[in-house]
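Troubleshooting entry. The earlier prediction with zinc ion gave an output that would not parse, so I re-checked the input for stray whitespace and re-submitted. Clean input:
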Amino acid sequence: MCIFCQMINGEIPVTPIWESDDVFVFLDQNPVNFGHCLVVPKKHYENIEETPEEVLKLISGAIKIVGKKIKNNLGYDGYNVVVNNGEVAGQEVFHTHWHLIPMTVTEKIIWPKTKSYHDGEMETVIQKLRSDN
Ligand code: 5GP
Ligand code: ZN
């Protein structure tokens, strides 16, 4: 059983920040900022594509509730919502989860260096992404 399932089942002690029948929210043990939360479905789904829409909707609701707490109760200016979806994207725990990373004006996350499309490249990518196969 994965580490998040063990936490949700009570096999590993963890204090919930917020929970419902379907969603569990707790502190990340290695926070980018104090108050860094992880929002996870109680049922095990490996990644976003495997997670049913109804569950994604419940996750969105939890993000709004806990996001408000991060701002109002901890006094942050905002927060980043981050999902590392897949190993290549930095996913280490393969039970899908949403990072809520509290941010301040001074610590604002800067996106990694961006790239530039050359002539025609953007159109090619658009066509590929619009394709259903
Ligand atoms: P990922 O890289 O998969 O997006 O993020 C996994 C996160 O889970 C990491 O930020 C890591 O600190 C956190 N994490 C891993 N194991 C535990 C644990 O046992 N307890 C808590 N609270 N967080 C964990
Ligand atoms: Zn799991």
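This one parsed fine. The pocket of guanosine-5'-monophosphate (ligand 1) is lined by residues 3, 26-30, 38, 84, 90-93 (CB under 6 Å).
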